[in-house]
Amino acid sequence: MKNEKLFYSILITVSIIVFVLGVLIGSTNIDLKTILLSILSYDNSVDSIIVMRLRIPRTIITLCVGGSLALSGSIVQSIFKNSMADPYIIGVSSGASLGAVVAMITGFSQVFFLVTPIFAFIFAIGTTVLVYSISQKNGVSSTETLILSGIAISSLLGSIINFLIYSTMDEFQASKEILFWLMGSFEGKTTSHMLIILPVTIISFIITLRLRRALDLISLGDTQALILGVNVEKIKKTLIIIATVLTSVSVSISGMIGFVGLIIPHISRLIVGSNHKNLIPTSFLLGGIFLTLIDLIIRVIGAYISIRIGVLTSLIGSPFFIYLLIKNKKKSYLGGL
Is residue 253 part of a domain? Predict the structure, then answer.
């Protein structure tokens, strides 16, 4: 990629600008000078509390969740060799959703504010382990079987979730809480949530970047990668674990946010190509920028219309997904001539 340093300098600069906007913009107007004073000399004033306990953690969380989902999407698309795959394909989202719903229905979510994310994370990891176990044969898991297992388990868990939601229709508060969680949101996220996702995101990014060469070779084909000395099954397991952890933690904190893991990696490939040396950091940074901008839009229009972030990402992502379907359909048609 030509002008690589310039490109990443621009991306990092945009990320910083978006972060600053995330701290500036909200229901309460706070100027840049007040923000800097709050950071340098924190006190118990209202402005300092808003900046340090609400806006900075929320903005860092949106950057991390967006980056995590996009990075996870890049990993999954490379492993499955399908640019239309997303990180939810192996049942992570369904497992996390079921865990959150169980926490809310049983009332455990009222005991401690991190109970819902913890339940969501545990169920998401458990679902992925189940899907991977079902897809294995003689210690090897094929891509096709893994996808089919993920679809089957997701469908099963989706039915259970619908049943549980229906069973709580008489309890308005519980059903409202479940519905809001399933639509995704960054409202009410605090420093505790930030301290959970930030280290997970950074560590996962570093590990994935170190495995970039193996990802390049696996993208060429498992047989080719084996010939070139890559332990394909081991690398795939490691990368699936990373993708699962990234997605699980993200979903457990923010709820369901669709299409970020699908469209951002695809856009990144169009910009920098399929070399994972460039694809991984580009997807990560663009994902964070995209989701933070969406959250800023929600904050701005929040005074006029109530909308959840998962709804808005779907409204943006669905047309793009349809475009990908049409584009791939044309390619398949032309290839058959």
Answer: yes
Residue 219 belongs to some domain of the structure:
yes
Beta strands 136-137 and 140-141: pairing type? Answer: antiparallel
Q: Domain containing 91 — which CATH number?
A: 1.10.3470.10
Q: What are phi and psi for residue 137, nearest 5 degrees?
A: -145, 120
Instruction: State both tokens at 303.
Output: 């005074």
Q: Is residue 175 part of a domain?
A: yes
Residues contacting 186, CB < 8 A, separation 6+: 58, 61, 62, 65, 254, 295, 309
pTM of the model: 0.89
Total domains in the chain come to 1
- pLDDT digits over 63-89, tens only? 999 999 999 999 998 888 877 778 888
Q: Is residue 88 part of a domain?
A: yes
| Whole-number Å distance between alpha carbons of 296 and 110 | 28
Q: What is the DSSP string of 53-112?
A: IIIHHHHHHHHHHHHHHHHHHHHHHHHHT-TT--GGGGSHHHHHHHHHHHHHHHTGGGT-
Q: Are 265 and 283 in contact (CB under 8 A)?
A: yes
The tens digit of pLDDT for each residue in 146-203 reads: 888 888 999 999 999 988 888 877 776 777 778 888 888 898 888 999 999 999 999 9
pLDDT in tens, 224-263: 888 888 888 889 889 988 998 999 899 889 988 988 998 9
Domain extent for 116: 16-330
All residues at 6 or more sequence positions from 214 whose CB lies less than 8 Å from its CB, including other chains: 225, 230, 235
Question: Could you give the angle at the alpha carbon of 191 between the alpha carbons of 44 and 241, nearest 5°?
Answer: 175
- For residue 138, what is the DSSP state? T
Q: What is the distance between the alpha carbons of residues 187 and 272, in angstroms, rounded to a whole number? A: 33
